UniProtKB/TrEMBL annotation:
Keywords: Membrane, Transmembrane, Transmembrane helix. This is Uncharacterized protein. The chain crosses the membrane at residues 73-93, 100-122, 134-154, 191-208, 254-273, 280-296, 308-330. It comes from Melanomma pulvis-pyrius CBS 109.77.
Length: 349
């Protein structure tokens, strides 16, 4: 939610994510704002009348330490969930509780990924922190993949829906014994593959985007040369199609237009990959996907597991911990002074 609000109110696509945090630092000469981010942000802010208000300034001045705290909290949360789950695996933890565990860790990993997107510029200026945070991101992602794999391993004898008590009551460690006889057209197997795909895409995108070398290499050595060659090819096809002489000719309809449409689609996909909007959409889709999996699993639980008790109340109450941290950063005297400085400077202009 914070990342979405920050994107709509405070994100500035004109700022280089790999800018040095130094007063005398110069921007990169080859940096260009993402066209999708510019178009979307301009359209949304103009339509809803979002201007440079005090709330916008607060979002821009949100202390990085607040997001760092949330990121560290998710690392500890994810590791604690996985360690407790792996310790219980030989003791016969059920498929039901294992899947709940896996998708709780899914949300923890998702939040950590979102924090890394928010901290892209900060981590560029602090390479040591970037290194160990990426290390834990990879460790948690690998552990999550290992946790998701057994959720898709099941024999056909459980039935087509795999929502029976026999299926969820079975020990998760038995899933590895059923790996060779797994029914690959089942819903659990498809869900497992889609979940791992979502996770792998998010991990690779963040590894590329958090590394200036990889980002520059992809842009300068892959995207730009391929784009120039495609433009030259389209120019040759346009000349060969004789569009100026025959605007409605078959060459234009069957050759030039499909090639042009394919080029534009690929370009939009690449721009979406490199945009902040793409990361926001990935986070939203992944959140909805994880929520669907969690709800489906909870609906298959016996009645007693849905009763509110100590185990349900405490986690809900602890949700307020990050919210209290955000409140402290906004209203405990850190931001008001910086906000007042900005307002005075704006009035002087």
């Amino acid at each position: 939610m914070i990342i979405v609000v920050n994107y709509l109110l405070a994100f500035q696509p004109e700022m280089d994510p790999f800018r040095l945090d130094q007063p005398e630092a110069l921007p990169r000469a080859d940096f260009k704002p993402n066209p999708i981010d510019k178009l979307v942000i301009k359209s949304i802010r103009e339509k809803f009348g979002i201007h440079r208000s005090s709330l916008t300034v607060c979002m821009q001045l949100t202390p990085t330490q607040c997001v760092l705290y949330m990121s560290d909290l998710q690392i500890l949360t994810g590791l604690s969930i996985f360690i407790s789950g792996f310790v219980q695996m030989p003791c016969g933890i059920s498929r039901y509780h294992w899947k709940i565990l896996a998708y709780l860790a899914w949300f923890s990993s998702l939040t950590h990924f979102g924090c890394l997107s928010f901290l892209r510029s900060y981590l560029f200026n602090h390479p040591a922190e970037r290194t160990w945070r990426l290390f834990f991101m990879i460790i948690i992602a690998v552990m999550l993949v290992f946790a998701l794999v057994p959720t898709g391993l099941a024999k056909e004898s459980y039935g087509p829906s795999y929502h029976s008590i026999d299926y969820y009551g079975d020990a998760i460690i038995c899933a590895f014994q059923q790996a060779t006889s797994t029914y690959r057209n089942s819903m659990p197997f498809d869900n497992m593959v889609l979940s791992i795909t979502f996770l792998a895409v998010g991990l690779l995108v963040r590894l590329f985007k958090l590394s200036q070398g990889l980002s520059v290499f992809i842009t300068a050595r892959i995207r730009k040369p391929c784009s120039k060659r495609a433009v030259r090819l389209l120019a040759r096809v346009r000349t060969w199609s004789k569009i100026d002489e025959s605007p409605t000719g078959m060459k234009r309809l069957l050759v030039y237009r499909p090639l042009l449409a394919g080029f534009l689609i690929v370009r939009v996909v690449v721009d979406l990959y490199s945009s902040m909007l793409g990361e926001v959409l990935w986070i939203m889709f992944s959140f909805v996907w994880g929520l669907i999996q969690l709800i489906q699993t909870r609906n298959s639980a016996p009645g007693g597991d849905n009763d509110w008790s100590f185990g349900q109340v405490v986690p809900v109450v602890l949700i307020g911990a990050p919210l209290l941290t955000i409140y402290e950063f906004f209203y405990a005297g850190i931001l008001p002074g910086r906000l007042l400085t900005w307002i005075n400077a704006d009035q002087d202009r």
